[in-house]
Fold:
Amino acid sequence: MTQSAQATMAETAPLLDGTPGVFADWASDQRTFKNTPWGKAMMWIFLLSDTFIFSCFLISYGTVRMSTTIPWPNPSEVFALTVAGNHVPLLLIAIMTFVLITSSGTMALAVNYGYRKNKMVTFWLLLATALLGAMFVGMQAFEWTKLIVDEGVRPWANPMGAPQFGGIFFMVTGFHGTHVSIGVLFLAIMAVKVVRGKLDREEPGFMTGRKQDYGMVEIMGLYWHFVDLVWVFIFAVFYLW
Amino acid sequence: MASTEGQQHPLGIYFQIWILLFVLSAASYMVDYMAFQGYLRWSLIIVFMMLKAGLIVSVFMHMLWERQALVYAIIVPPLLLLVFVGIGTLEGDYTFLTREIFYGGAE
Structure:
């Protein structure tokens, strides 16, 4: 049987739903992830590995916080801001959370308008997502500066309590901030690709030489939503706990 | 091949989930603002966290509409992390007790 005949069979074989579908897909001796572009499946598997990295950080944070005999600094106080004479707990972090959620929304809309082949709306939404991401990184830089310069927090010591606080804080938020920064860079690249019509014309990609299409915007979106997802966990267990 | 496999859904669902995420974020911030303490605080934090994570993964990342072979491949492995959390908890408690016993007087 020739390659093309095999491919035709694979594409025309009826797909099962539900649990039988899981076994049929995995046992098919063909590609496992049916009706899924390979790029999307690979992005999901990358995100799975990233999940384990961030989980290792957060679990070690939990272990360290449980095992210290010196009181843990109260994040609600450490990250409080004074606005017009009012002392508001955790204000900057709350604003950062809302900025990231807003960017997740604009990203989801960008994916949707991409599949509608609405070039200009997709472009502006991607640009808005990138700007919100950059705003998040900017606020994080402000937060780090405040902690390092004004409050004397170091990775090995801080004046508020357990010395591990600084190490965990810089490690976790630094790694997350790096993810956001890389995301902003790729969002900007994707926005330029979209507005130049490269996805409409299915031009070969610069690096891969493969045909580009609006599925790429969805894959970019998966990464961006994941960055937001990680922040949900950091916000909950590091800042609120 | 790839161009026929995109996810296309009505816009409304994205706006609904977006608003829900805002509400849940505001709620989890209120947990801190109202200064809830103890088990009430921790359970509320976990509930809001899991709800937000679930909404993002299922709707924004389209897991609701993916084939189950992919869903299981991605969702099942992280469940192993619960074992890891358990090990970390045991280790953390053990280290704390050891420190209390041997360094307790030094504080």
In short: Chain A touches chain B through 71 residues (CB under 8 Å). The domain at 39-240 of chain A is CATH 1.20.120.80 (Four Helix Bundle (Hemerythrin (Met), subunit A)). The helical segments of chain A are 3-12, 18-26, 38-67, 75-78, 91-115, 119-150, 164-195, 215-240.
